[in-house]
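Team,

Forwarding the record for the chain on the shared tracking sheet. I've put the sequence and predicted structure together so nobody has to dig through attachments.
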Amino acid sequence: EEKIERLLRLIHKQVRYIGIELGDGSILPRTPLETMTRHYGDCKDKATLLVAALKAAGITAHVALLNAGNGQDVDVDLPGMGGFNHAIAYIPGEKPLWIDVTAENTRLGKLPLGDQGRWALIASPETQGLVKIPVSTIADNWDRYTREVTMNDDGSGKLVETIEADGSEESTVRAVYAGEETKEMRDALKGYAKGTLLSEDQKLIEHPLKHDFSAPFRMKWESPASKRFVVERSNGVAAIMPAPLLGS
């Protein structure tokens, strides 16, 4: 898995995902050399590149075609070429591994929801029919927000929030918060702190690197002057927002 992870992240760094499909390019993948030279490719280009890299490293892998999304799936008894719209990589074994090379914010062993539960055509000489891609469970897709409120006697205080996520929820927050502190990320964090935590200031304590997928997403920051709590002479009150607790 470590070797697969390194190859996958190397492709993410060097090859951008661009879905331009014109002429033969709508059906035929470009060669791995051409994709590496151009530094961009669509789903079938990137899947073919990863499969070639894995085979060069001694790992058996194949390209797999599927109809990704929430619409009608391909006809399992008559899977014509026109029914497929996406290509991913498949590694056979006791625990088969499916990899969507276009999902750059998804950790190894995870798949976007639109790929799950779909019928796949594995491009292998041993293929006799379509294979159902596994579906993750609720326990595989979650996010957790932990808020720690410190209230001092002098009326000051701070709010420390930790965000943890895995599966499809992790992919969503990674796309916004992981990596370098860009203006877009700072604006998103500032808007969240201002609208949800009623704080004009925030300081990052723990921030995941863009290409660090060694563990589920975890991010932590401090809002030193949040108005979600009030300290008076004899008591202190902290507000708990109902939306995160009751939302689906």
